[in-house]
Amino acid sequence: MSFYPTDRIALFIDGANLYSAAKALNFDIDYRKLLDEFRKRGILIRAYYYTALVEGDDYSPIRPLVDWLDYNGFHLITKTAREYTDSQGRKRWRGDMDIEIACDMMEMAEHADHLVLFSGDGDFRRLLESVQRKGARVTVVSTVKSQPSMTSDELRRQADTFVDLADLANVVGRPRSSHNPPKFLGAEEDYDETV
Q1: Which pLDDT value is given to residue 62?
Q2: Domain assignment present for 186
Q3: Rounded distance between C-alpha atoms, residue 192 and residue 92, angstroms
Q4: What DSSP element (H or E) covers 158?
Q5: Tell me, what's the pLDDT at 185?
Q6: Residue ranges making up the domain that contains 124
Q7: Cis omega before residue 182 (within 30°)?
Q8: CA-CA distance, 195 to 178, in Å (whole number)?
Q9: Is residue 193 part of a domain?
Q10: Separation of alpha carbons 132 and 11, rounded Å
């Protein structure tokens, strides 16, 4: 990753997308290490984390993560996930955060030198082009080293820099626990961001 020490940096983390990419690479993200890494690379002015939450659940396995992030330097953007039943009769959730990410990136492009998007979603290609015209550099963090690839080729081409999440595993990751980790909103099996 190429950063200048005086770069004002903003992180934009698509929670469900990052979770799926890390899971495909068989590690978990250590969010404290992630913040520390970007604080070393410049002036971290904001770290946004986007996720949809299921309302009405007495306990959501993602709630401890969301609470921890909220108290430890992340700006949380959440919305209510919508339940639906897929064609096989399975209960699924929808909670697309693309608009929220796009709005915040457009606003921050005027205040930050370097925007880091943790998502491989090709829908963001045009967004990257727009914030680059405002003068911001954009790094995309996702992976092409999983099967299948978690990153759109168009998004990689538009980014100023692409960083494969697999290459950051030793810096911001920790091995997945050997017991079955709890499923939470963001797991591919339980969550569908398409609308």
Answers
A1: 82
A2: no
A3: 7
A4: helix 153-158
A5: 39
A6: 8-175
A7: no
A8: 34
A9: no
A10: 15
Angle at CA 70, nearest 5°, toward 170 and 55? 110
- The confidence score (pLDDT) of residue 187 equals 37
**Token pair of 168 as six digits:** 């950051």
Number of domains forming the structure of the chain:
1
Tokens found for residue 38: 């970007």
Q: Is 117 in contact with 17 (CB distance < 8 Å)?
A: no
Report which secondary-structure segment, H or E, holds 125. helix 125-133
Measure the CA–CA gap between 155 and 3, rounded to whole angstroms: 20
First-to-last CA distance in the chain? 33
**pLDDT by residue for the chain (195 residues), tens digit each?**
688 899 999 999 999 999 999 999 999 999 999 999 999 999 999 999 999 888 766 667 788 899 999 999 999 999 988 777 888 888 777 778 999 999 999 999 999 999 999 999 999 999 999 999 999 999 999 999 998 899 999 999 999 999 999 999 999 998 776 544 444 333 333 433 332
Structural domain contains residue 111: yes
- d(Cα 104, Cα 85) in Å, to the nearest integer? 31
pTM of the complete model beyond 0.90: no
Decide if 38 is inside a domain. Answer: yes
Rounded CA-CA distance 189/110 in Å is 37
3-state secondary structure of 58: coil
CATH code, domain carrying 29 = 3.40.50.1010
Beta-strand pair 82-85/91-94: antiparallel
